[in-house]
């Protein structure tokens, strides 16, 4: 095999690696509130949902610059650790005001979440909010269902084909007027307003997360 063939082979391997590491999708999703995670899992499995992963702890950090230019533009920059996986995510603004939340999402697997945060800080971004949850993932035809246990309640996220989302929500007993399209930040702000608590730190389990308050 000559040098040119090696280069072509290497390029193809590199392209495949990059495709595996990065994903650009049009995210279509809703949230559904549940009283407990146990109830959510029971109702999902009753309609045929299959477990795709076990219960995993997630730690999410939202970043922005000092002028909050991303937030003001409706964009999101996030570094997430989930088990032994770290993911860098960029989300575009929500596309339209419909019963489903629709936006472009680009995700890249990163080797070191801490190094990624330091790199972003050098570019002028800093952590402006942190939220945590325990997530269990299930699959159903046409969508992925996740059970998210947060400090302010349990939510099932349905992401995938809009028709599959509507069908699954109905099977779970939720009409369209009970769909939740708010972000976890927005849900935390609503909960803080009702409870009289500070929104900062309201969606974290770990005491050391207090250091991220600003």
Task: Walk me through this protein's architecture.
This protein is of the alpha+beta class and 214 residues long. Helix content is 30%, strand content 39%. The chain has one domain: Hypothetical Protein Pfu-838710-001 (Beta Barrel). It is globular, with a radius of gyration of 19 Å.
Using the alpha-carbon principal axes, give the shape.
Answer: globular
Which ranges are low-confidence, i.e. pLDDT below 50, for 5 or more consecutive residues? 1-20, 209-214
CATH topology: Hypothetical Protein Pfu-838710-001
Total domains, how many? 1
CATH architecture: Beta Barrel
The first-to-last residue Cα distance is 58 Å
> What's the CATH class, please?
Mainly Beta
According to DSSP, the number of beta strands is 8
Number of helices: 6
- In CATH, the homologous superfamily goes by the name Hypothetical Protein Pfu-838710-001
Radius of gyration: 19 Å
Helix fraction bin: 25-40%
**Class by helix and strand content?**
alpha+beta
The percent range for strand residues is: 35-45%
The H/E string reads HEHEHEEEHEEEHH
User: What value does the average pLDDT take?
Assistant: 88
Largest sheet data: 8 strands, antiparallel, barrel
């Amino acid at each position: 095999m000559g040098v040119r063939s090696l280069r072509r082979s290497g390029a193809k391997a590199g392209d495949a690696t990059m495709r595996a590491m990065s994903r650009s999708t049009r995210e279509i999703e809703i949230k559904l509130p549940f009283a407990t995670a146990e109830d959510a899992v029971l109702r999902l499995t009753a309609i045929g949902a299959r477990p795709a992963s076990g219960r995993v702890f997630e730690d999410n950090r939202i970043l922005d610059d000092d002028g909050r230019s991303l937030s003001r533009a409706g964009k999101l920059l996030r570094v997430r650790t989930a088990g032994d996986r770290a993911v860098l995510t960029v989300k575009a603004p929500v596309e339209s005001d419909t019963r489903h939340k629709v936006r472009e999402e680009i995700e890249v697997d990163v080797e070191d979440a801490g190094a990624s945060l330091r790199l972003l800080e050098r570019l002028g971004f800093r952590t402006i909010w942190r939220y945590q949850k325990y997530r269990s993932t299930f699959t159903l035809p046409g969508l992925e269902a996740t059970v998210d246990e947060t400090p302010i309640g349990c939510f099932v996220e349905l992401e995938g084909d809009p028709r599959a989302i509507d069908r699954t929500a109905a099977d779970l007993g939720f009409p369209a007027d009970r769909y939740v399209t708010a972000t976890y930040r927005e849900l935390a702000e609503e909960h803080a307003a009702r409870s009289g608590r500070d929104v900062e730190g309201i969606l974290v389990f770990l005491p050391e997360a207090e250091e991220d308050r600003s």
